[in-house]
Amino acid sequence: MYNILICDDERDIVSALKIYLQGEGYGIYAAYNGSEALEILRTRKIHCVLMDIMMPVVDGISALSELRSFTNVPVIFLTAKSEDVDKIVGLNLGADDYITKPFNPIELIARVKSHIRRYVMLGSVPESPDSLRIGGVEINDNDRTAFVDGEPIKLTAKEYEILHFLMSNAGIVFSPAEIYRKVWGNVPIGVDNAIAVHIRHLREKIEIDPAEPRYLKVVWGRGYKFDKGEK
Hints:
By secondary structure, this protein is an alpha/beta fold. It folds into two domains: 3-121, Rossmann fold (3-Layer(aba) Sandwich), CATH 3.40.50; 131-226, Arc Repressor Mutant, subunit A (Orthogonal Bundle), CATH 1.10.10. Helix content is 41%, strand content 20%. The protein is built from eight helices and eleven strands. It has helices spanning 11-22, 34-43, 60-67, 84-93, 105-121, 157-168, 176-184, 191-206, and strands at 3-7, 27-31, 48-52, 75-79, 97-100, 131-134, 137-140, 145-148, 151-153, 216-219, 223-226. The strands form three sheets. The protein has a five-stranded parallel β-sheet, with helices on both faces. A four-stranded antiparallel β-sheet has the order 6-7-8-9, covered by helices on one side. The chain has a two-stranded antiparallel ribbon with strand order 10-11. The longest helix is centred in the middle third of the chain and has 17 residues, at 105-121. The radius of gyration is 21 Å and the shape is elongated.
């Protein structure tokens, strides 16, 4: 999963951007001043930064100057029309792009995709063959970690194995017995309830609304599947 850091002291703007970008499958981190943004950049894997210029504590220009000492992550400034001088200063300091408020969500998403694609192609973010991402859910088989919208979640060993199996075969329906055989290696009597319990626990951890799951779907009379999210 690619993670985006949104940094703006206007919380409504952060919330709106989060909705737009999570809808595209990105993990989101939020900061409300440059100091918070720098802390996240030092401790998290970020693939693109959307940063306001005028902020309290540490402004966007100062944060950019600092972050360029330890990362080449693409930075897109969110600017007001009156900040032309700051745009020029930011670009000279290493900003990759800017977009003027109020912004067009379609244009902003296109810019984000373009900069992340370039960042990855240049080798700054090597793709891992052990990583699997569908929508906002990502698992890494190397260290058996799981993330939802960029945030780590804790799974038991069996929960991870069930999730890995279903994600690796996304769109395919498996009966409880088939899931049990894959994960436990045998099929005792009465596996339906055991699998139902594990699926319920997984939904509680990866779904926004477990009662209306986006990912882990039941196909009545047949079993379960991890939905690809394709229209």
